[in-house]
Amino acid sequence: MLFFSLLYIFAQYTVVVSAINATSLSWYDPQFPALNATPREEVFARRTYFYVGGRYSNGTGGSVITDQMYVEKLEPQVVLHKYPIVFITGGFQTATVRTNLSTCKAAADFHIQNWLNTPDDRTGWASYFLSQGYIVYLADHVKRGRSPWIVADSALLNTTATGLTFVQDYFIAGERTKLWPQAVLHTQWPGTAEVGDPTFDQFYASQIQTAPNDGPFSQTVVDAYSALLDKIGASVLVSHSQGGPYGWGIGDARPDLVKAIIALEPEGPPFENQVQRTGPARSYGITTAPITYSPAVNLTADANAFTKVRVNSTDPNLANCLLQAEPAKQLPNLKKFPILMYTTEASYHAFYDHCTYSYLVQAGVNLEWLQLKDIGILGNAHFSFMEKNNMEIVPLLDMWIQATVK
Ligand SMILES: *[C@@H]1O[C@H](CO)[C@@H](O)[C@H](O)[C@H]1NC(C)=O
Ligand SMILES: *[C@@H]1O[C@H](CO)[C@@H](O)[C@H](O)[C@H]1NC(C)=O
Ligand SMILES: *[C@@H]1O[C@H](CO)[C@@H](O)[C@H](O)[C@H]1NC(C)=O
Ligand SMILES: *[C@@H]1O[C@H](CO)[C@@H](O)[C@H](O)[C@H]1NC(C)=O
Ligand SMILES: *[C@@H]1O[C@H](CO)[C@@H](O)[C@H](O)[C@H]1NC(C)=O
Ligand SMILES: *[C@@H]1O[C@H](CO)[C@@H](O)[C@H](O)[C@H]1NC(C)=O
What we know:
This protein has one domain (3-159, 205-404): 3-Layer(aba) Sandwich (Rossmann fold), CATH 3.40.50.1820. Strand 5 (85-88), helix 2 and strand 6 (136-140) form a beta-alpha-beta unit. The model is unreliable at 1-22 and 90-113 (pLDDT under 50). It has helices spanning 2-12, 125-131, 164-172, 174-177, 198-205, 215-232, 243-253, 349-362, 390-404; strands at residues 13-14, 38-39, 45-59, 62-76, 85-88, 136-140, 235-240, 258-264, 272-273, 279-280, 308-311, 321-324, 339-343, 367-371. The chain is globular and about 55 Å long. It has 9 helices and 14 strands.
């Protein structure tokens, strides 16, 4: 099997040797076959789709099903890994509606994730995992993309779309407006990040509307992914940004079916917004929907259940954090599987992800934090999986999964 596995990999990739400093990461393996590889061709994968979750209710026109979620399964010819990868993501150039470009408010309002090919038509991370023998699941979150939604549904009246300058300022050209200290380090976006650049236009066109990021809505997404795991069995989750809190919720709801979570710059920091806007957020620390703590927290019954402390940084390049006072309430379900949190060098998350990391450590979670700069991968922002060096990065995740998930 090993022999076949290597053959399979080399059939798809040319390996390029590069020196990366990973002294602090015990799982890092410079001999890993796909490290820094150059993808040559897409592997064949069998594609099927199905819907999960949802519930029947009586609408004005009779009985309807709502909150079901579209899922696509991509299965390579040769499956080499026991657990599939489930990307926690938004839609990919699906039936999109722009509502009102001037009302965009926050990163949480955006779903521009693209795990398939990149906007400049290079191989994406889903293809990488397929080439390495993983089954991959891609879903459009509830009420987005191919997961049906009805505009008359009141919650969707607050649907927001992505503003052009917001996308440029925070995601793909932060080095121009420098709204956080690390932004100047960004170099990896493929293209000029201007309207008229074909890569930019593809990227911007892939963005879709999204529903409000409140607790009840988030719970419908968590419920749908929980139904997915009930159907497909134990899996590894790869979440990004707003998918981060969904991933925590799914891990909390199905701790025995989540084998690991890789959280790419999960939405944060704890209890408040920073950089893009300010003020309270994520009332359950890392989530807006309720999540299991020990001792238990029910903010409806006790709005002051958390005792928060402000922990200030002496480094002006790093945010001041809101954490729990000790003894911190624990996240017992999220302790049951390993978690890799991931932050790039130049993302706005580089300013505050240490707050999320510290919060999770306080809460007793089995967590490692991969900061790309620590292993010499520089210049990425929030959408690293579609940036120029995306294929240099993704073998690290594969490596971590193979070293950690048993
Ligand atoms: C690798 O990282 C360690 C710890 O940060 C540092 O001491 C060392 O100088 C680095 N080595 C290289 C070759 O960059
Ligand atoms: C819808 O209404 C009908 C008729 O009142 C009722 O029998 C049925 O149980 C209702 N279904 C749901 C899902 O509430
Ligand atoms: C879009 O939202 C802005 C800000 O709320 C508002 O002023 C404007 O009228 C809206 N435009 C449309 C077409 O609804
Ligand atoms: C839209 O959001 C605002 C602010 O959160 C809220 O007050 C309002 O009730 C929402 N409207 C709908 C129709 O959900
Ligand atoms: C949280 O507290 C509210 C108000 O006391 C109660 O209605 C609700 O059932 C509680 N939720 C849980 C999950 O216990
Ligand atoms: C700590 O950080 C908070 C929030 O950034 C700030 O309001 C406060 O003044 C800081 N305190 C000190 C002592 O610097």
